[in-house]
Design goal:
The structure is a homodimer of 483-residue chains. Chain A is α+β, with helices and mostly antiparallel strands and 483 residues long. Chain A contains 15 helices and 19 strands. Chain A has 3 domains: 90 residues, Uridine Diphospho-n-acetylenolpyruvylglucosamine Reductase, domain 2; 119 residues, Uridine Diphospho-n-acetylenolpyruvylglucosamine Reductase, domain 3 (2-Layer Sandwich), CATH 3.30.465; 202 residues, Alpha-Beta Plaits (2-Layer Sandwich), CATH 3.30.70. Chains A, B: Its cofactor is FAD.
Amino acid sequence: MSAPNTTVPDDAVLSALCAVVGPEHVLTAATHDLTAWEQDWRRRHRGRARAVVRPADTAQVAAVVRTCAAHGVPIVPQGGNTGLVLGGVPDASGTEVVLSLQRLQRVRALDRDNLTLTVEAGCVLQAAQQAAADAGLWLPLSLASEGSCTVGGVLATNAGGTQVLRFGNARDLCLGLEVVTADGRICNGLRGLRKDNTGYDLRHLLIGSEGTLGIITAAVLKLAPQPAAQLTAWASVPSLAAAVALLGMAQRHLGPALTGFEVMNRLALQLVQRHFAELPMPLPGDAAPYAVLLELSDAEGEDHARARLEAVLAHALQQGCALDAVVATNLTQARTLWHIRECIPLAQAQEGLNVKHDISLPVSRIPAFCAEAEAALQRRVPGARLVNFGHLGDGNLHFNVQCPPGADAAAFLQAHEATINTLVYDLVHAHGGSISAEHGIGRLKAATLPRYQDPVALALMRAIKQALDPQHLLNPGRVLVDR
Amino acid sequence: MSAPNTTVPDDAVLSALCAVVGPEHVLTAATHDLTAWEQDWRRRHRGRARAVVRPADTAQVAAVVRTCAAHGVPIVPQGGNTGLVLGGVPDASGTEVVLSLQRLQRVRALDRDNLTLTVEAGCVLQAAQQAAADAGLWLPLSLASEGSCTVGGVLATNAGGTQVLRFGNARDLCLGLEVVTADGRICNGLRGLRKDNTGYDLRHLLIGSEGTLGIITAAVLKLAPQPAAQLTAWASVPSLAAAVALLGMAQRHLGPALTGFEVMNRLALQLVQRHFAELPMPLPGDAAPYAVLLELSDAEGEDHARARLEAVLAHALQQGCALDAVVATNLTQARTLWHIRECIPLAQAQEGLNVKHDISLPVSRIPAFCAEAEAALQRRVPGARLVNFGHLGDGNLHFNVQCPPGADAAAFLQAHEATINTLVYDLVHAHGGSISAEHGIGRLKAATLPRYQDPVALALMRAIKQALDPQHLLNPGRVLVDR
């Protein structure tokens, strides 16, 4: 009687992969510590890879895919491994090959007159931002993980971040892609065109498909002129409805100069105060229910920017949609304001495990949704604490739930996580929202998606997956559960 | 011996369609003049429809599609019939049913706080613009045919227009779609969300697919606050390279307030002068090689806008990238400047038949491309006159060729159209450009596309078409030639 051999490394595949990329770029657990590729960013899951393969260029990526396809081996494309939904780490089967794009990190071209940057998928976002800045230009895509995440990963997941209000999501900053298909062909769509109606938009189909339809190997990104001045302000507001009113006011007065509009509830700030006591709170006695952070990017200069921002805030104070407000007087102060906002997830982690949501809603529905969700939460899980913050300008909230003070967080999650998720997602759905605003689906939400996604849409997605990856070898089980 | 009966109306289908939409909304040539649906906008082609069917709502659209699918009858979805590439008119076979969306024209919702407008596909673009304006908001999508074209058509073809520089193409203004699939199911994606990463982006796949993958029945469109002031300026420039330099200067100084940047060559303006003699030219003795039109949309007010625009123009004059410049002093003058630009295609038509191109290039390549293309054109077709104008800010040129003065235009086209197309498109391709920037492919360019589109991209498009419309009944032969 022979043991099942599905998890025994197939020498033929590994040998073939070694022939493609060189043996030093085919890593296995037998010879290497694969933690960096097998463990997810939040360190809540650890998979097992058949091997980690590190091709050097697009041709090698294509050859790796052809090799895996020939042997029926599933592939998990991976960038900086900063994803939050288990889209880029292998499952526990030990059968999946991790295809790391990290060696494809060249900046291929920067075109000043066309305002475009062509970079390879493995280029770290911060390096791409720097390449733009070195040319006096601006890549207006910014997220907390920018020091580790890669351009390919950012596009494969259609990442969001803090500048979506003006510049859109990652997809909106991409003009063209180079992609390796499921059968290992190279599709060259690296065009830096702002208008191109020559057939179906494969670029947008691939962006956000989380490596399940093809592997992004390079991209043309849109750049913008650097603003002459950027200013940051902080305001306390009496309610979420007031925050929405302030958003509308700021959009009317500032137009596209408004590049950031974040919101945070009182508990979010209290956690930051508790765990980052050295961070000064911007407004004294900050006991307002919500605070907002505004960012203005001005094409004219600092004086002009300051006058505009102060005018909006004065109007908001007069109208009662702000209780108090302050404009950062220098870059250090501005960075501190952003730092407070960015510390919320870290403060949450310090406080203990919590139930995270990455939801979006029509901006108009946010006050009603939050009121209903908070009330329902208190009914179902008395004492649960809501840490509510996010990119209000985009309708995107991180609506996270922490256990009651002093409770055992792990036991709380064990007992309530599924209930809380269903409660929140059902209400999100009822208000026309999305259960994944910027993080994607991955494996984490793949089984949940069918409950909320339109069934016809799901059927179309399955048909597309079948058409472009008939062997189901590209990141199988991510986005769509395999049937 | 019996005659072939492919063009004989199939009573079973027509009866079934009558049962769905009512007999008064199934029009045939036997009882109606079908010119409005069978003839294309440029009046160069006249097809023949088996019938024109006019459903009243989405459910009827789905039922019409199911009926046609059951009988294997091809469907040509049609909006305002303003397309320029034979994408929305029937072919000559008499077998295709035209499915007109014109009765689906309701404004379903306007959400002020969310800045969204939900409209049905048959709503005329101008009516949608008006619905936004009535609420004090702005639908920043504007094209010459806006009085006739429909929202559905604009999205199905990913139309461009004059405000792409700041707001993007039609696809960039759409947050969600309602779509009828090839098998007559309704896919409800009418969500007004700025962030939504729940699976593949079907919206962007459908937008620009020209009715070949599904039929758009409604859409959620993004709105913007109305600008406080809009100003228009005109400048003569010594060369295309100077125009590109002026564009960069304007983008740096004005940022996103620059909402329009059009370019026109001398001949384009001379034709307007000849055929619209009553239109005053903005600058005296306008003999510069090129002129540009700039539009500034300002969130603060007219004085502020004027000071900014004058500062940019003064700088341009000083740097030599403008020879002369004028800012419109009132709305009438501004409209006249735009009117001159918009009269170019009309003046061309008055001058006689011509060879039209709708191309895009990286902005940085435009001067070199135009120099090479113009020289090659003169070598191959001596005396041919180039009417070159378009949306320079988007890299989109209408690079049109008129016969030598006094020559027979029809004979000229007969002799040279194919040669000129190949010459222009080959050069566009060599410079990394697109043979269809904003008009689409339709039937007109479907046979040309494979020469210039990446072969792997074409294969993926065919796979997607096969997956979503396996019977090939949705607008067959448009975008992709049937094989």
